[in-house]
Amino acid sequence: NRKSFRAYAQQKFNTMKKIVLLGRLGINIPNFQTGITTKGIELFSGTNLEEVDTVFEQNNYKIDMVIMGAGISLENRLQIIEYIFTVSKGTTVHMKDWNSGPQGMLPFVNNVLSGLINES
């Protein structure tokens, strides 16, 4: 039945977790998503506060999680965190370590997602 499929699809879309991935050079979502092991998520990418603001605004400030790479300057990361905690009471923020380098981003994201989404 077409109507029930639409209702199912809308419910499924509404329950998808919205995740923002931040990196100094940006994150190519289609390439990155092939390595993500968690299902039921919608990924967004950004590199700075302005892009974070745009993603939050476009999603009515309903972002579940922000995962941030260490390549963004500390000053900018702190500004982004302050913004997130000002506009949202439900968004969690996770910051990757510096030592694992860019190649550590995908494993870090998978670990955060599996720990916080798969168990909820």
Molecular structure report:
- With 120 residues, this protein is of the alpha/beta class.
- The chain has one domain: 3-Layer(aba) Sandwich (Rossmann fold), CATH 3.40.50.
- 46% of the residues lie in helices and 17% in strands.
- The chain contains 5 helices and 4 strands; from the N terminus they run H-E-H-E-H-E-H-E-H.
- It has helices at 2-15, 29-33, 49-58, 74-87, 105-116, and strands at 17-22, 41-46, 65-68, 92-95.
- A 4-stranded parallel beta sheet has the order 2-1-3-4, with helices on one face.
- Helix 2 links the parallel strand 1 and strand 2.
- The longest helix is centred in the N-terminal third of the chain and has 14 residues, at 2-15.
- The radius of gyration is 15 Å and the shape is globular.
- The protein starts with a helix and ends with a helix.
- 20% of the residues are buried.
- The mean pLDDT is 89.
